[in-house]
Amino acid sequence: MGRYDVIVIGGGVTGLAVTYDLASRGLKPLLLERNDMMSGTSGKYHGLLHSGARYAVNDPEAAYECAVENKIIKEIAGHCVEDTGGYFVLLDEEEYYDEFKKGCKENKIPIKDVDVDEALKEEPNLNPNIKAVVEVQDAVLYAYKFAVSLGLAAKMNGADMRAYNEVIGLLRKGGRVVGVKVLDKINNRVYEEGAEVIIVTAGPWSEKILNMTGIRNIKMILTAGTMAVVPYRLSKRVINKMRVPSDGDIVVPYGNNSIVGTTAYVIEDPDNYTIPQEDAEFLMEEGSVIFPAIKKIGFSRMYSSVRPLISMGEEIDTRKISRRYEIYDHEELHGVEGLLSAIGGKLTTARAMAEAISDLACKKLGVKKACKTKETKLPNPLEALSAEHLKTKGSPESLVRRVFEKKGTIDEELLINALYILIASSLW
Ligand SMILES: Cc1cc2nc3c(=O)[nH]c(=O)nc-3n(C[C@H](O)[C@H](O)[C@H](O)COP(=O)(O)OP(=O)(O)OC[C@H]3O[C@@H](n4cnc5c(N)ncnc54)[C@H](O)[C@@H]3O)c2cc1C
Prior knowledge:
With 428 residues, the chain is of the alpha+beta class.
């Protein structure tokens, strides 16, 4: 026991970002994930690096957080981002137009008016009945590339990460959490691991883990959201409906596909729920208001994941719950020393969330090391692997080089995706 300064529970994007942040400050973290890394919400999200514009009117703090992180992520993780830009298109709710622009201005979210004819030239599949268009700095963030880059950066800084290692208990000494009890699903054994600080980044499962210490009064509202995949890229940009945020508002161009989303319905158990049958019809109706062609093309698949939102009082309108993140110190809140948790937020703000909770962990550990992740570029896993491979005697150098340079055939491009799996398997 005690080989690690910090144990991080949950290998979604938040856990990976926290592990990297801590390791880059010279600490020794261990990340434990019960299944594959990114198998929770992070691996099944909508794909949008938010500009903040979506939240500008109703959730200004979340809007501002997104606007700040949008710039940082484009800078430090350019290889994971497709900087598409985005359009907010006005279809009805004309009274929202002025409110939307005012909210963006107040939260320092850059916007630009675009002439409707110009927008239709740029995006010919858009509904021709749009009444106004505002350009924003939305982009696409490829989640798995981001995760593998965070994992590689964490590993290069000395972190340990274990997939298929489920935390099944928290070890306590008096009022302090001193370690975890872990089920190693690969070797089918149970073991214990100790650390000075334990950080819970288990997304929708956080409440279950906190319950292991007897903490009961953190209330999370779990809302699942469905996304539908159109097997065709309908636009260059991310397209949002300009209206009070609601369901079925956004279409994200993700590779050669377009993802229509989302919905929101309260669930009890993130391991046991089903996509409501009516979601396909609903997303078809709402999506085809933006791109009429969706009705002809149809969906190739649907998927869903769960938002771990923090309840604000009694409010249960799921679209009105803040998209901000919260950092909890359970010593202050519940008298449990050595236990912190980071809950809520967006994939867009995972780095900021990691910075905030790592600052707190450092304070607890008496370590004075500033965060470096804001200005340090993440390593590009393919470049790292390329450098390794090209050194290897007998590697098919020209193929490897073509693949890494993204030239050549679709098959070679598919190989790139497989390479991410190969790199990931060497990390955890
Ligand atoms: C439908 C939907 C669409 C979204 N779209 C966007 C978007 O376009 N842009 C954006 O910025 N954000 C978006 N989000 C929000 C974003 O996806 C989440 O904020 C983010 O992925 C949360 O990451 P996380 O690491 O905190 O949680 P998760 O990714 O859920 O990770 C938690 C991990 O903990 C693990 N775990 C659980 N229990 C244990 C245990 N006992 N031991 C070890 N590990 C455990 C789980 O297996 C899981 O991998 C969306 C969310 C939803 C639901």
